[in-house]
Fold these 2 entries.
Entry 1:
Amino acid sequence: MYVKKDRKEETFDNMTDIHKHCPICGTPIPLEERVCSQKCQDVLEEQQAKIKKSRRTLTILMIVFIVVFAFIMFFNNLMK
Ligand SMILES: [Zn+2]
């Protein structure tokens, strides 16, 4: 891991303006890299898992809301 870090810094010195930043710690990284290190890779995967989970929860909540709304509309129509 530390050897990789040294190589990364060497690459950074040779880099042109075209680069991006590690989404976790903001370290400049080559375009083909997603994150700067294995540690940040782990953090990124953990964050994405959380986002995925919260999106799924949100989707379920929306479905429940739509079903409840449909039921209310249905019974409103029955009352008329
Ligand atoms: Zn990083």
Entry 2:
Amino acid sequence: MIKEGGENMKGLHILTFILLVVGGLNWLLVGLFAWDIGEIFGGQSAMISRVVYVLVGIAAILELFTHKSACKQCDKM
Ligand SMILES: [Zn+2]
């Protein structure tokens, strides 16, 4: 998976995007059905659920710091 720097950043960018979408859709499920993705892994306190939540959170932090340089819209401002 690890190739040159550019490919690496691209992979990280896509992974961050996917995780943020998962996180956002999870909130939609919580809001609409009071059900969240953690239920698949045994509830919110299950280890795998917590790993997923932490990964989504890390993706949000990464997005905070990398969004501007990766976004065409923000680039214009
Ligand atoms: Zn932007």
